[in-house]
# Entry
Amino acid sequence: MGVRHVWVDASGGRSIVETMPGQVNGYNVARAWRAEGYRGCWVFALGTNDTANVAVGPAGTVGLMSRINEMMSVAHGEPVMWVNTRTLLSSGPWSEANEQAWDSTLHQALARYPNMAIFNWAAVAQPGWFLPDGIHYSSFGCAARARAIADALARAFPRSGHSHGHVVT
# Structure
């Protein structure tokens, strides 16, 4: 697939807009990478916490599509694969219904961003890969997710072609 370098910046509790003490939000991490010269395919595995933040936030909270637009603005038309979200919770801010609202918004964004693909992690994730909190993944789940994301990247952005805004399972 032509990958020579991988840059990873993962942090628990991260969202695109809000910050936790001592943490940088997703948008500012991506902006810093761009300023440092990163060019290439972006993988955004954000949204789980954004959905919860919107669910409990005040009326002025940045909406779901605005969050996606912020991240896509950093990519400047370069390939982007979003990893959609899933939880096992039936209620509360991190409920699966809220996660499905995020995923629906990602699908709407495909029409706006021809450089974007979605990896349908929600269709692949197995209940046994989650920790008892129903949000986070076990070590096995994390490893399965990493392999699945790499495989999805190869299908979404083949070395011989270009993505035209689609969903990869």
Remarks:
- The mean pLDDT is 93.
- The first helix runs from residue 26 to 35.
- The first strand starts at residue 42 and ends at 44.
